[in-house]
Design goal:
The complex is a heterodimer.
Chain A (H helix, E strand, L loop, with lengths): L15 H12 L6 H9 L3 H16 L3 H20 L16 E3 L16 E3 L25 H4 L10 H19 L3 H14 L6 H15 L2 H17 L4 H11 L3
Parallel strand pairs in A: 1-2
Helix pairs in contact in A: 2-3, 3-4, 4-6, 6-7, 6-8, 7-8, 8-9, 8-10, 9-10
Chain B lengths: L2 H40 L4 H17 L9 H27 L19 H13 L3 H12 L4 H8 L3 H25 L4
Helix pairs in contact in B: 1-2, 1-3, 2-3, 4-7, 5-7, 6-7
The chains are: A mainly alpha, B mainly alpha.
């Protein structure tokens, strides 16, 4: 004989007081916005992670005008990095007319070239500015939850930063578009401009990852070696998260 | 196949796996975040600490993702909830020792009958009752009465025999009825 199936108290004709307590417990939900912060803490979907910060920020400033545009653009850039990433959709370029990489400090002006480029400008690892600003992905601290009480605060950005952010967004978008077109040299030049203008910029990690991807796509022994060095440096600072996974995936192609 | 082609394929595989993991984590968060949140609250985590605790639970899952099969995600999450909640309760107890009695999430001494309709107060009363249960009873009660998980699944989730689930649920209900009656008697009626 089968035992009588158990029925939860809330489905029985019982005490309304008990029902009220149990139903109140059942109706509780995670607060709105906590899912974005959670995904950010997990480092899932860079766009989502940064979007969490950006959304939080824009909600503070009202999400108007250029700030809202910048916010959406940043989220789109980072989210789009997977879609545009050469490790996913873009085909490998069959030929790249590039030479050995030149060591260019971030403060040096980008070489003014037209058309063909003999050298691939890149940045020495030792010249990479230390990340004194928080990375856009709040999960930079490996394995540590983002305190709920500080998640929103971490997104606090002065309204004066909007033009800078817009410029950063434009540069990263330009570099990524160039890479998607297979123009690695142009992408690297644009990244150099970004790094020179924003050595501690909000999108600096994205710039570093994009540079690694670009060097790998450019191919050639020296470019790949440079990508590995930059990748190792990046992974030493960012051991987990979508950007670290991207770097590992990209480097995995050349190891 | 050239070594370059092989390494390119390996890179593509790694990249694909990363995408798959991300997609899976997003789905798990979407499907189970409320469950984890509620379970943490009912297992005694203060509301102010629940978001951090939720992140801890999912961080643990993300590290073990490859080892957790799709049909055992909820089981893994609840097992982690129990451990994280236990740590959180101890931390809350330490804070109470340092700062005195914690008033957060405590019901009023004698709430009016109307206050029962106040969700927050009702939840605080529920949590007060759950707080007085042992962890074993509490876990079964929360899963069955709040999450409405079937007894057979609870047995799997907690790794205990179905008969143990039934006996714990019976004792938990007795405790709940008794505590609810006490609360009801002390509830101030208009």
């Amino acid at each position: 004989m089968n035992p009588e199936p158990l029925t939860p108290l809330v489905k029985q004709e019982d005490d309304p007081f008990e029902h009220a307590l149990l139903r109140a417990g059942q109706r509780e939900r995670a607060p709105r916005g906590s899912d974005r912060r959670l995904l950010a803490a997990l480092g899932v979907g860079g766009g989502g992670a940064l979007a969490a910060v950006v959304t939080s920020y824009t909600s503070k400033v009202g999400g108007k005008g250029v700030l809202a545009t910048v916010a959406v653009s940043i989220a789109a850039i980072v989210a789009g990095s997977w879609a545009i990433s050469p490790s996913h959709d873009a085909p490998e370029p069959t030929t790249m007319n590039v030479g050995p990489p030149a060591e260019v400090a971030p403060s040096a002006p980008a070489p003014a070239t037209d058309g063909k480029v003999e050298t691939l400008p890149s940045t020495r690892v030792e010249d990479l500015p230390s990340s004194s600003q928080p990375a856009p992905r709040p999960a930079g601290k490996v394995g540590s939850p983002i305190p709920a009480t500080t998640a929103a605060a971490s997104a606090a950005v002065s309204a004066d930063d909007a033009p800078s952010l817009a410029r950063e967004v434009a540069l990263i978008q330009g570099a990524r578009a160039a890479l998607a077109r297979g123009e690695a040299n142009e992408a690297l030049r644009t990244l150099d401009v970004h790094d020179r203008e924003f050595p501690n910029g909000t999108l600096r990690p994205e710039s570093r990852v994009l540079r690694i991807e670009t060097l790998v796509r450019a191919g050639g022994e020296q470019n790949v070696a440079r990508a590995n060095v930059l990748g190792d440096a990046f992974l030493a600072e960012h051991r987990s998260g979508p950007q670290a996974r991207r770097v590992r995936a990209v480097l995995g192609r050349v190891q | 196949m050239s070594s370059a082609s092989t390494s390119a394929l390996a890179g593509a595989d790694a990249s694909t796996m990363a995408c798959v993991d991300d997609a899976r984590l997003r789905r798990i968060v979407r499907d189970h975040q409320d469950f984890v949140w509620r379970s943490l609250r009912r297992m005694g985590v203060a509301e102010s600490a629940t978001e951090d605790a939720t992140q801890q639970v999912f961080l643990v899952l993300s590290r073990k993702l490859a080892d957790v099969s799709a049909d055992s995600e909820r089981s893994f999450l609840f097992g982690t909830v129990v451990r994280v909640a236990s740590d959180a309760r101890r931390a809350q107890a330490r804070r109470r020792e340092v700062h005195g009695a914690e008033v957060e999430d405590r019901p009023d001494e004698s709430p009016s009958a109307e206050a029962i309709v106040d969700e927050k107060k009702a939840r605080a009363m529920l949590d007060e009752i759950l707080h007085s249960m042992s962890e074993d009873l509490r876990a079964v009660f929360v899963l069955f009465e709040i999450e409405e998980v079937q007894a057979s699944e609870i047995a799997e989730l907690l790794g205990i025999p179905a008969g143990t689930v039934a006996s714990r649920l019976r004792r938990a209900r007795e405790h709940f009825h008794s505590a609810a009656n006490r609360l009801k008697r002390t509830t101030r009626h208009p």
